[in-house]
Specification:
The protein is built from 15 helices and ten strands. It is α/β, with parallel strands linked by helices. The chain has a single domain, classed as 2-enoyl-CoA Hydratase, Chain A, domain 1 (Alpha-Beta Complex). The strands form two sheets. It has a seven-stranded mixed β-sheet with strand order 1-2-3-4-6-8-10, with helices on both faces. Strands 5-7-9 form a three-stranded parallel β-sheet. Helix 6 runs antiparallel to helix 13. The relative contact order is 0.12. The N terminus is likely disordered. The structure holds 3,5,7,3',4'-pentahydroxyflavone (QUE). 3,5,7,3',4'-pentahydroxyflavone binds next to helix 2 and helix 15.
Length: 351
């Protein structure tokens, strides 16, 4: 084993060095990058995304069969960006530090999408926001029975970033708009159904993936992963059953029309969805609807550029500071948004 334990490099003199948040090695022609910040569910810091980008950049000049992205922690692949730190930066008047984080993270997302070697993410546990940015832009996303995937940013006054406005609108029907606006959590079966995941492999068989890739001998990676995969657990999934309603409601052209269509439906799904949309940030709903609509006609790089522009304003807004406070700082889960529930007075934002 050619072990090069990476100590992530500080971005500035003021960022403390963060030892071993990323582990990287090469084993029989397969690169492996492990997220190793278990106490924070692998929430991404600037030094982590910079370290991953550095490793991938260095490995572009190495002939590899594949790169595997995984976590040392069985509970979480990656909870997202270190959004608590972003809020603290805003409160301390250092939004520039956050801008460095997002710029580095989105550059990494683009590198993953364009990477010359197949990237295989092993998602065993929580994968939200920035975690999807690491995995979805790569070619292969393996989920286990522990996987939970979501873009939950509207709940914290933010918006689905990391190029989600590229991949969400390209999911079947109106699934992407539904996921982006509501933050709905997908289990393994639903992640496969939506197309965010490509293969299901039981958690106790994940350990065989590295060896199988190393021994692949020209077998295509998709075929190889299919050979290790099986059906997701019985009883999981649920998205397929509401697809008709979901496409009808979230296929509407405006937020106002989405609301009207939801109110016309008399189902448990419609009632639950209304409750979620009433609880999240009205500002985030508007930004997200506009962003995902515009993303249909944008390239990934254009989507990431739009994300970066939007972060500059969004992270300074009261809804973002309040949303992160309620979800991650005080954990009271009762954010007080600046505007009345989404029902009233939708206006358009420039995305
Ligand atoms: C929405 C989000 C995030 C979230 C919760 C939301 C997010 C994120 C985290 C998170 C979770 C655990 C941690 C941590 C961050 O939670 O992006 O540092 O230990 O990173 O409702 O977008």
């Amino acid at each position: 084993m050619n072990d090069i334990s990476m100590t992530s490099s500080p971005m500035t003199e003021t960022d403390p060095p963060a030892p071993d948040e990323i582990l990287a090695d090469i084993h029989q022609g397969v690169g492996r990058i492990l997220l190793n910040r278990p106490k924070a569910l692998n929430a991404l810091t600037t030094s982590m995304v910079a370290a991953i980008d550095d490793v991938l950049s260095a490995w572009e000049r190495t002939p590899l069969k594949a790169v595997v992205l995984a976590a040392t922690n069985p509970k979480a692949f990656c909870a997202g960006g270190d959004i608590r730190a972003i809020r603290e930066n805003s409160l301390a008047g250092d939004a520039e530090a956050s801008e460095r984080f997002f710029a580095t993270e989105y550059r990494l997302n683009a590198r993953i999408a364009e990477y010359p070697v197949p990237i295989v993410s092993l998602i065993d546990g929580l994968c939200m926001g920035g975690g999807l940015g690491l995995s979805v832009h790569g070619g292969f996303r393996v989920v286990t029975e522990n996987a939970v995937l979501a873009m939950p940013e509207t709940a914290i006054g933010f918006f689905p970033d990391i190029g989600a406005s590229y991949f969400l609108p390209r999911l079947p029907g109106a699934i992407g708009m539904y996921l982006g606006l509501t933050g709905h959590r997908l289990d393994a079966a639903d992640a496969l159904y939506a197309g965010l995941a490509t293969h299901f492999i039981p958690a106790d068989r994940l350990g065989t993936v590295m060896d199988a890739l190393a021994d692949s001998q020209g077998v295509p990676i998709g075929t190889l992963l299919s050979g290790l995969s099986g059906p997701p657990p019985v009883g999981s999934g649920g998205l397929a059953k509401v697809r008709g309603e979901l496409d009808h409601v979230f296929g509407a052209a405006t937020l106002t029309e989405i609301r009207e269509r939801l109110h016309c439906l008399d189902s448990a799904w419609a009632a639950a969805t209304r409750d979620v949309l009433d609880a999240v940030s009205p500002q985030s709903l508007e930004i997200t609807h506009d962003l995902l609509t515009a993303g249909r006609r944008r390239t990934l790089r254009q989507c990431l550029d739009a994300d970066l522009r939007l972060t500059r304003t969004t992270i300074r807004t009261p809804d973002f500071l309040e949303g992160v406070r309620a979800a991650l700082v005080d954990k009271d889960r009762t954010p007080k948004w600046q505007r009345a529930p989404w029902a009233e007075g939708a206006s358009s934002s420039a995305v």
